[in-house]
């Protein structure tokens, strides 16, 4: 087994033996259309999944179209079309960025991003959520707020990956 950087490797003692924590299911919430949400986080998650032979679950969240007040004015099936479009974009990104040797899948949530990430993490029993964060600019506070919310409320471990200077 390849050794992870010290900050990522968790070793415990149990009955006199060292045991290294291995992740089984890693959730990576991202927006396929917004590279800053996956440029640093996805490679980190791929490395972890490769080292632990974990399942890598890429997730995107699409908005809800059927808001009760305006639902009558929207075409039927719009929510399903939004989910399908989100899944197509996620599948394209997964095929391009995730090596075939990594067991992976694509998931789509719909609604509030932070709540959907937590719901999906519980549904798939993710033991790690890997998501992006970066030094906020005026347009980036939403991403930072989502990462902060998930970090505070997740039942599983959360790894927030900050962009490196050369990634920007």
List the helices and strands and how they pair.
Elements lengths: L10 E4 L2 E4 L4 E5 L11 H12 L2 E8 L15 H20 L6 E7 L2 H11 L4 E6 L7 H13 L3 E6 L6
Parallel strand pairs: 3-4, 3-6, 4-5, 6-7
Antiparallel strand pairs: 1-2
Helix pairs in contact: 3-4
Mind explaining what this structure looks like?
- The chain is α/β, with parallel strands linked by helices and 168 residues long.
- It has a single domain, classed as HUPs (Rossmann fold), CATH 3.40.50.620.
- Helices cover 33% and strands 24% of the residues.
- It has a 5-stranded parallel β-sheet with strand order 5-4-3-6-7, with helices on both faces. Strands 1-2 form a two-stranded antiparallel ribbon.
- β1 (11-14) and β2 form a beta hairpin.
- α3 runs parallel beside α4 (141-153).
- The radius of gyration is 17 Å and the shape is globular.
- The mean pLDDT is 82.
Write out key terms for the chains shown.
168 residues; two-stranded antiparallel ribbon; alpha/beta; single chain; Rossmann fold; five-stranded parallel beta sheet
Low-confidence stretches: none
Described by strand count, sense and barrel closure, the largest sheet is: 5 strands, parallel
Strand content: 15-25%
Q: Can you give the mean pLDDT? A: 82
In the CATH scheme, the class would be Alpha Beta
Along the chain, the helix and strand elements come as: EEEHEHEHEHE
Q: How many strands appear in the DSSP assignment?
A: 7
Separation, N- and C-terminal Cα atoms: 31 Å
Summed up, the helix count is 4
Radius of gyration: 17 Å
Instruction: Assign an overall shape.
Output: globular
The amount of helix comes to 25-40%
Q: Identify the strand order in the major beta sheet.
A: 5-4-3-6-7
CATH architecture: 3-Layer(aba) Sandwich
């Amino acid at each position: 087994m390849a050794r992870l950087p010290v900050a990522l490797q968790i070793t415990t003692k149990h009955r006199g033996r060292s045991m290294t924590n291995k992740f089984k299911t890693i959730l990576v919430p991202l927006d396929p259309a917004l590279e800053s949400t996956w440029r640093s986080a996805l490679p980190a998650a791929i490395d972890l999944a490769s080292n632990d032979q974990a399942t890598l679950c890429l997730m995107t969240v699409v908005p809800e179209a059927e808001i009760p007040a305006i639902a009558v004015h929207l075409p039927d099936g719009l929510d399903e079309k939004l989910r399908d479009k989100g899944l197509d974009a996620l599948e394209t990104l997964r095929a391009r960025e995730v090596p075939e040797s990594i067991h992976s899948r694509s998931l789509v949530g719909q609604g509030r991003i932070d709540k959907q990430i937590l719901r999906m993490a519980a549904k798939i029993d993710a033991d790690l959520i890997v998501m992006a964060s970066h030094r906020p600019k005026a347009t980036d506070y939403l991403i930072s707020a989502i990462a902060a919310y998930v970090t505070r409320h997740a039942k599983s471990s959360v790894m927030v990956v900050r962009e490196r200077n050369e990634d920007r």
